[in-house]
Amino acid sequence: MNLQANKLNNDIVPNRDSLPIAIIGGSYAGLAFANFLHRNSIPYVIFDSKSFPFTHVMGGAGFIVPSYDLIAKKLEIESSAADCVRGGVISRKDVIESLLQKVEPNLITSRRIVRIENRLGLFYLHSIKKHNSSKEQSESILGPFQFVVGADGVLSTVRTSALPRTFLIGDARWVNDRWYDFGLQRINRGADMALLDGLELGQAIAVEKTVPQMRVPSKYCAWSISRRRTRRRFALLLVILAILLVKCRGKCQVIFHNMIQTLQDVIFGDDCLNHDRQNPLMTFQFHGSWMSLDGTYAVLTPNPLFWIQLSVLIILQSLVAIILAFTIHKGIVQRRGSACSHLLCWGFILPFAITLPFYLIRFFNVRNRAVLLSTAATPTFVTFRCLEALYGFSPHSVEESLWNYCMYCSSVIEFVFDEKTKSPARASGNDVMNKGKHFAMNFLLVSLLLSFMEVHAYQPFDTHASITSVQEHRGLLRTTMRYIRPGHVGNNFLSALLTSLTVATGTAAFGFAICGLAGILTLDAFDSPMFKSTSVSDFWGRRWNRLVHGVLKRGVYKPVRKYSSKTIAALSTFIVSGILHEYILW
């Protein structure tokens, strides 16, 4: 049977349980696991990067496998003739040859797996095939599979991916769990441990063939292993920091004090953001009677101190948001509906997030209005994202892992998540270029419009009506006509356009930075709301500040709608939106 043609190239499989299990790695653990699946009639496919035959194992006949007799009986494997020569003791090479007897038809060689992808709960393998006749390589996508088992050694692709419902056996698992003995036990008993791993995982899978009902020990789960490794590294980092603080407490205090003093005096101490004293790059004269534009104009460079202040505050708030995201995921997402989750949300996280900007403003003595506005990023997003988590309305895929949730909560710009892989979508080179062009264009438009509006005291159009036109109307009609005059409407339009471009420029700057540095695709907060909107709902719902629209919808409207009518939910959202804007401006 040609497994590669019949099993791997079918994109639509009606019965998930009939899909094969992908085993990456054809050494001790992978072959032992495959033999157990073969014995229990569970479909499987083995992939190995080496070409066949690959039975040469480092060490040759110099090592033995003490547990092989027990394992061979359970797997019903016949020993090779070589063990008769060695007095009943089988070598590692003989183990490989005997394990290949039944599973070799399901073995695909010269196929290196470079990436694992999860599409709607099914797994697809991105592979590179080596051709023996030439140095050329061909790439292909194999799948779907029920789940993936990594037996691919120390440099395991499965362990690097750490996706849910992927498992590790052999060296791929022990390289993390036995880190403290520097691999000595793995070297001495590596073959034994690998065979026992394959046998035990096969027994767990044979008990429950349906994937959602499987009860596999957590020590084999790639995601659990990744979390344990992360916790160990974090604990080690804390221990190192604690030792440094104890040993160098005096020096650390001096360094910390100097850092804070530098932030307060150098970055946030100068008042140049409110009174620009830069020397112009160039000046030019403009002669024209249109809107009183006669005069001398100067071109100034962007003030880097503004962007430094903005970046420092955003980074500090992002670090705080990561800690809060960890707390939300552990205390609210994983315990949703409990009294502790409500107490944590309403009693700690929301009060802390709302009061944080006042401490930042007072500590750094922030005076620039635009920078003051940026301090509202944490309370705005953390507050509503906490409510999303409390009532179960977080965006799709963000709660799949702690990593996704921390990235989602720590960023002032919302990430675009891939529905197939359930992870942040990767930004291509074109995406980065488009983000950069979008930011540069918005920055130029804001600079020109702000300069134009400031020269005319933000009222470039004449709003004074003639005495005759005013006397023609009385009472309420007279007041109405005053506000719908062309000059007044024009001034308001330019002010609204300036507000839209200013906020869009700030969000575009950080979106461009995230795409370029982290390679993650971000959501555009504004989509030309002043010129491309076709209706009021299109303006507010799909084009104007989609970040705030999304958090209000998921954090206020949907939770209220869950327990009341649409009218009450819409009214509640409108009231909270008004309070939010008053809080930000305050």
Q: How would you summarize what this structure contains?
A:
The protein is α/β, with parallel strands linked by helices.
Termini separation: 72 Å
Number of strands: 12
Total of helices: 23
Judged by helices, strands and strand pairing, the structural class is alpha/beta
Strand content: 5-15%
Instruction: Give a quick account of the main beta sheet: strands, pairing sense, barrel closure.
Output: 5 strands, parallel
What value does the average pLDDT take? 76
Question: Could you walk me through the main structural features you see in this protein, from its secondary elements to its overall organization?
Answer:
Residues 1-14, 55-62 and 81-88 have low confidence and may be disordered. The strands form four sheets. Strands 3-2-1-7-8 form a five-stranded parallel β-sheet. It has a three-stranded antiparallel β-sheet with strand order 4-5-6. The protein has a two-stranded antiparallel sheet with strand order 9-10. The chain is elongated and about 100 Å long. Helix 2 links the parallel strand 1 (21-24) and strand 2. It is built from 23 helices and twelve strands. Helix 14 (377-391) runs parallel beside helix 22. It is an alpha/beta fold and 586 residues long. It is 56% helix and 10% strand. The protein has helices at 3-6, 28-39, 68-75, 82-85, 92-103, 157-161, 171-177, 184-207, 222-247, 249-267, 304-333, 339-364, 369-374, 377-391, 402-410, 429-455, 467-471, 475-483, 486-518, 529-532, 536-543, 546-563, 566-585, and strands at 21-24, 44-47, 107-108, 111-119, 122-130, 137-145, 148-150, 166-168, 282-286, 295-299, 417-418, 423-424.
